[in-house]
Write a structure and sequence with these properties.
Elements lengths: L2 E6 L4 H11 L7 E7 L4 E7 L2 H4 L2 H4 L6 E7 L14 E5 L2 E11 L2 H10 L10 H10 L5 H11 L2 E8 L4 E5 L8 E4 L7 E4 L3 H5 L3 E5 L5 E5 L2 E5 L9 E2 L1 H6 L5 E2 L2 E2 H15 L6 E4 L5 H11 L7 E3 L17 H4 L2 E3 L1 H4 L3 E6 L6 H12 L4 E6 L27 H8 L3 E4 L2 H9 L6 H4 L14 E2 L1 H4 L21
Parallel strand pairs: 14-23, 17-20, 20-21, 21-22
Antiparallel strand pairs: 1-4, 1-10, 2-3, 2-4, 5-6, 6-7, 7-8, 8-12, 9-10, 9-11, 12-13, 15-16, 18-19
Helix pairs in contact: 4-5, 5-6, 9-10, 9-15
Length: 481
Amino acid sequence: MCGVFGIFGHPEAANLTYLGLHALQHRGQESAGIVATDGEQLFLHRGMGHVIDVFPPEQLAHLPGQHAIGHVRYSTAGGSFLKNAQPIAVDYARGSLALAHNGNLTNAHALREKLEERGSIFQSASDTEVIVHLTAISTQRRVEDRIADALRQVEGAYSLMCLTDHSMIAARDPMGIRPLCLGIMPGKKDAYVVASEPTSFDLIDAEFVRDVDPGEMLVFDDRGMRSEHPFKATQRRSCIFEYVYFARPDSTIDGISVYEARKNLGRTLAKTHLVEADLVIPVPDSGVPATIGYAEQARIPFEMGLVRSHYVGRTFIEPQQSIRHFGVRLKLNPVGDALRGKRVVVVDDSIVRGTTSRKIVKMLRDAGAREVHMRISSPPTRWPCYYGIDTPTRGELIASSHNIDEINQYITSDSLDYLTLEEMVESVMQSKPGAASAQRHLPVAAESADPGGFCHACFSGDYPVKFSPHPRHRSSKLVES
């Protein structure tokens, strides 16, 4: 779920990358990094924490040049340590290279073992470093061909940004699992931007051009921009959970408005799982658009019955005295005046372990809610993700071992309902302008019951890319302060 950003051909490349990463902060809060080049060498700065903390103004001043790439990290492969922060920058026989990666490589462990057997030395536990080593040993001449050669050997999900002294390269995996889009800076000839989501373009006044196609590689150099397709064509499998939760609601990904998709998910919930209630409330912030859709369809008043604190840091001091629901109340607090004596529908995007939902229901009852009905704008999450989201193991996912009635009993709600897989897919597809009626009747692919070309493995267990049974990363004996 990391975020990547790159800009080529602008005199304030590092500053604009900093702003672009701000707009992608929701995709990763563990670390941030920027690599810039002045045409002769690469300049790198990385740090743990949020973008605003990692890059004070004086630090940005030390990142010169007209080209830069950046990264905000949410750890999947590799722990939360500075050595695993990105972009990764190296000097090798053919020059300097920096890489920033969103996604997860499912065969990284096997490739790493082969590389180590032939003498490669790894400095991090990140699967991204595998791409660096494969690029370095490639026999191809052009840097874009070496990167393509490396990517042909990896499996899994990647939206990749690469930077050399003189060029920038962007690539999206052949299934398009993770998002990537292209923009241009108006008034600046040949000044291009690439990012995980187009919301980062809005902040810097860049114009959205299009989404990067699955399997496409964009090369930016002194000749301008060119598009190449070095990978074998395959069926699109964009991550549907981007529309349910990951992406910012003001983004449009692969032609689908995230905000409209979430409202449609809520509308479908109201059509299929309506319950008599006095008000509908979201679990903020991700549940808000779906709740608006539910309230509009059901004609039940919308209220902000839970208020979220936006000032929760990465660490906090928990009082030694036990405080009931402390962890949840740190982020959410009920509005008693709105809830007292009311029958309440609570809309959330998903239930993972169930512990948070259980505490939320208890909080709402303590605040005076007479009934609490949970509605989830996605199917039960039964399977872990291996393509860039650090979901728990299957044994920790409550829906993998409990049916809906049992989950309802555990979280102590008066009723609980989810969308089906088909309802979720159709709701998202209907959010594409002009495609609502046409997409509904598309032929179904032989290998999947999904006409939309989405990856929904976390709900269905239908994994589009095989994954290694090996652990995603090994424990390191190196300790970094």
